[in-house]
Amino acid sequence: MEVKTIDTELLKKMFLAGAKNLDSKKEWINELNVFPVPDGDTGTNMSMTIMSAAKEVAAIEEPTIASLSKAISSGSLRGARGNSGVILSQLFRGFCKVIKEYDELDVRILNDACQKAVATAYKAVMKPKEGTILTVAKGAADKAAELADETDDIVFYMDAVIKEADRVLDLTPEMLPVLKQAGVVDSGGQGLMQVLKGAYDALIGKEIDYSLEETPSAGKVAVEDQPEEEIKFGYCTEFIIMLNKPLTNKEEAEYKAYLESIGDSIVVVADDDIVKTHVHTNDPGLAIQKALSHGALSRIKIDNMREEHQEKLIKDAQKLAESQKQEAAAEPEMPHKDMGIITVSIGEGLNEIFRGLGVDYIIEGGQTMNPSTEDMLTAISKVNADHIFILPNNKNIIMAANQAASLTEDKEIIVIPTTTVPQGITALVNFIPDRSASENKATMEEEISLVKTGQITYAVRDTEIDGKVIKQDDYMGIGDKSILSVGTDLMATTLEMVDQMVDEDSAIVSIYYGSDMDEEAANEVAAKIEEQYPDLEVEVNDGGQPIYYYIISIE
User: Fold this and answer.
1) Counting Cβ atoms within 10 Å, is residue 231 exposed (0-12), middle (13-18) or buried (19+)?
2) Which residues are paired to 454 by β-bridges?
3) What Cα–Cα distance (Å) separates residue 516 from each residue in 35, 175, 519, 549?
4) 3-state secondary structure of 70
5) Phi, psi of 135 (to 5 degrees)
């Protein structure tokens, strides 16, 4: 088949198909992360970025290419999470800058848009690295330019571009040794490929479900197959919880146990941001009330398998959700100040430490849940200050913070490039309100460079990296730039990591123990460190962070 032009309707289908394809492959893409940590999130970040735009696109009733371009660009920019999500949003931004001027798209316009997309994305990255999503995008754009004068058939054109991009993706392990050692291609590049391949499927007329509804849960019992007298629990109840914060393993287990106490046919699928719930119960209100303790509800669906009281229960559930939403919105406005501080943190202990150091607003998130640009903008709107410092405390959040800064016009946003929580704490310790914003920026950036951070977690798969053979469930000590220790004993792996970090200039060791550890165990680690390094001052803090047993800083 041949396609010479793409009109508004086809463009919308292609974008939604690309978004759906990426979303369906996100867990597979997560598994391509180089470090075998239990928080691989490239697929999730890219999916949430593009789905933010897809929701805006789907909501346009009578679209034009200009209105679609605005929705794609704005939705992805504000929804961008993680470095891969921010780069994806910049690719869309550049692409849409070109196509918004036309009513139909042909090969030449698409080529111009591809070149602008890559140029915009490269410009957004301070130090572009080859072997990443940028390289894959550039490979696609180079092929697009080569073919622009050779064909006017968009099907042939796009097929060739995708094949070339796939070829470049396969070469990424040769460009980045860390990928080759881990035996994977670049996860961000693979995410981009899924967007392109989904869009191509729509272009050639492949039948696709363009709805953005969640995939139906497994285990749902059909009412017609179950006589009324055999139905133990009469209401099939489904909803999505938009989480206030990620559920710990304990909270998720308790939530499932509660649902089991009031019903059956239970399916609970939890992510960092949402929980999809399905349960058969005789009292949906109980399930809803329990869910509301974890966040706001969305897409509530209650089917009365005995055909009774359905309408009333839905209205009651909606009232409860609306009440929760109104209570959350009723926040007092902060008094105006010259300088304010926003930090990203996860774990009640760490949150308390940051509050004690004068932080004005805490964005819940971190390594296990990268906040979006929209989350940053929301925080900025809540802090009533002329100059606002943002401490991302994670290298995968810095780009989203910078993007939020570029979208803010009425306040000066200063992103301090903290890559770990201890760096964020050190930056705050050195913040002096009586100094100017520029003086504080210089001091904070200088001081965070003196902080070493190590984090203890576990491996989710076998791999070899940084010259270390790692088996699934091994403990790992991850430093600022590499894996420092691996082992089957938590204490030994932690002490080996610390030994790799200590040098002649070291003076203070700070231990932040996570939600899966307790103070007694952390004090044992501190005692061992003091025994081995009697000249060092060692302090223990309750961090409460998930995934990481210990976060340890040395200054």
Assistant:
1) middle
2) 552
3) 21, 38, 11, 6
4) helix
5) -65, -40
Q: What is the mean pLDDT of the chain?
A: 88
Distance from C-alpha of 216 to C-alpha of 29, rounded to nearest angstrom: 22
How far apart CA 497 and CA 64 sit, in angstroms, is 56
Distance from CA of residue 415 to its chain's centroid?
19
Closest CA to 404 of 133, 124, 132, 188: 124
As given in the structure block, the two tokens for residue 66 are 């200009």
Tokens of 332: 């007092």
Please give the model's pTM, rounded to 2 decimal places.
0.73
User: Cα dist. 183→38, 132, 474 in Å?
Assistant: 18, 15, 19
Location of structure tokens 């913070």: 401
Which carries the bigger pLDDT value, residue 311 or residue 32? 32
Cβ contact 288:282 at 8 Å: no
Kindly report, residue by residue over 270-289, the tens digit of the pLDDT.
Answer: 777 788 888 888 888 899 98
How far is the C-alpha of 67 from the C-alpha of 76, rounded, in Å?
14
Find all residues with CB under 8 Å of 96, minimum gap 6, and list them. 69, 70, 72, 73, 113
The predicted pLDDT at position 93 comes to 95
Torsion (CA) 448, 449, 452, 455 in degrees, nearest 10: 60
Nearest CA-CA partner of 99 in 78, 114, 120: 114
Structure confidence by residue, pLDDT tens digits, 26-41: 988 988 877 777 655 8
- Residues with Cβ within 8 Å of 282's Cβ and at least 6 positions away in sequence, in order, are 233, 234, 235, 262, 263
C-alpha to C-alpha distance for 368 and 373, rounded to whole angstroms = 16
